[in-house]
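User: Good morning. I'm curious how 2-acetamido-2-deoxy-beta-D-glucopyranose would be positioned relative to this chain. Could you predict the structure with it bound?
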Amino acid sequence: MNSFKFYLPILVLLQILTSSLATLYPVSVANILNAPLTIHCIAQGQNVSRDNAPAGFVLNMSIDTNLANPTATCQLSSGNLQGNFVVFDPSKEPNRCFNGRCLWQARPDGLYLVINGQFSLVYKWP
Ligand SMILES: *[C@@H]1O[C@H](CO)[C@@H](O)[C@H](O)[C@H]1NC(C)=O
Ligand SMILES: *[C@@H]1O[C@H](CO)[C@@H](O)[C@H](O)[C@H]1NC(C)=O
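Assistant: Good morning! Here's the predicted structure, ligand included:
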């Protein structure tokens, strides 16, 4: 018989199962300083960077926890402020990121993350 017709429903089912298990996390870093911010991130091995991002700029990345090395770190600098921060860690996410989104803000006192719907100071500038 036609084996393709037999396997097709199984393939469709597998597709539905794997897509429901897909775990894509948007991760963003916003500049809420009154000064330009240089953002150099490595997200899952990819270089995502912006030099001298103006106030209000939002750098976007995404992390797929089904793929290898699902981590993201960013080196941020603005004037005297600088630091290297983990912005996605699969051992902490998704519990810390709100609704599967990791929204970070660089502010004068440090790096904030939306946790349970509220911006919380997670890292002070070193
Ligand atoms: C990543 O981007 C920064 C800033 O543009 C650059 O200095 C660095 O060489 C890049 N690294 C890689 C591995 O592409
Ligand atoms: C990042 O995503 C936000 C929300 O979707 C969007 O408003 C912003 O323009 C994006 N930033 C860049 C640099 O594309």
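The chain has one domain: 19-122. The helical segments are 3-21.
Let me know if you'd like a different ligand tried.
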